Amino acid sequence: MAHPKLSNEDLIGKVADVFRREGYEGASLSRISEATGLEKASLYHRFPGGKNEMVAAVVNHVNQWFQDQVFTPLERSGKPTEKVRFIAQRLREFYADGSKSCALDTLSLPGGSAALHEAVRGSLTAWLQAFTGVAREDGASGAEARERAEQAIIEIQGSLVLARVLGDCKPFHRTMDRLPELLTGARE
Amino acid sequence: MAHPKLSNEDLIGKVADVFRREGYEGASLSRISEATGLEKASLYHRFPGGKNEMVAAVVNHVNQWFQDQVFTPLERSGKPTEKVRFIAQRLREFYADGSKSCALDTLSLPGGSAALHEAVRGSLTAWLQAFTGVAREDGASGAEARERAEQAIIEIQGSLVLARVLGDCKPFHRTMDRLPELLTGARE
DNA sequence: GTCTATAGCTTGATAGAC
DNA sequence: GTCTATCAAGCTATAGAC
Hints:
Two copies of one chain form a homodimer.
Chain A: H1 8-26, H2 29-36, H3 40-46, H4 51-75, H5 80-94, H6 103-106, H7 114-137, H8 142-166, H9 170-183
Helix pairs in contact in A: 1-2, 1-4, 4-5, 4-7, 5-9, 7-8, 8-9
The structure holds a DNA duplex.
């Protein structure tokens, strides 16, 4: 065929890249069209609900990735510190060594529906919960575990902002290196 | 007069609020017009260069604020730890206790000119330099001081992202409380 | 399933009255 | 210095051919 169907997996990945990089308002259909190679009308065939449905699919896609690559591995049996080392590697991949922004950051800017912002908040809550879980497993009390989880995600988000502004990935790598001690003690 | 001139100080402050909150692409002239009470044509009278000149003025305005309220106080004589406690209070005001976003975050999204992104990078570099300076004054070596500065700004940026997503300012307040130990040792 | 063409609205920007 | 009125370009979204 001249225009073979683009697989759903490839499509949503490319759409997600645009929303992650540009945020909701910056992710215009023209840019999404350019990034995916599909014309706008074709995008509406795949996402009849338009931009709202696209960004919802992006959030679901990212949630699924975190479930499979981060949350589930953390719930498996094994030494907490080693599991955190493992998922730190997954996060390096997800953020392309710090060169890609976090959707929680870019999609939390004011643009988009209230449902979008609730979904984004839900994603962050799930992430906090997963990190709190592994900190508890390491022996931290409830409050201490929650604090470690918040601290770890704060440093991930902050280092990604620095990386974007400076065009320098070193702060992100340093944070990933420190992730095991951030979550599983050895901090104080 | 029916329409008295809005003072430059008031105007730029309101314009800055919009750009900080919405980012470059989200800060449409309609929203700026609504926030300032000036029609679009009046905005062009004040900023003949249009949106580009507006955002440049915002960056200058923020730079000036940081110079006066953060960098200069850090350069004055006094105990480093006490100076950091002082500027932490200024930062709480600037970020409205964590409820306002950082312009470095929102304005570093892809929208806007290359000059804008270079200016934003310059602002962050100046901030890093000021924080590195006070860490050195506290006795840290060059590399250690720079690391403390990066770490402090990472945690500020990260806690502001969490605050925006969750609508919860506690992580930001915790970071402000920890700022003295982050910059002036007592960390390890 | 993809495309071209188009509708209606919003955007950044300008002209000209007061 | 502010306003109303307007423009061309970009936006989201839809209709209909292949």
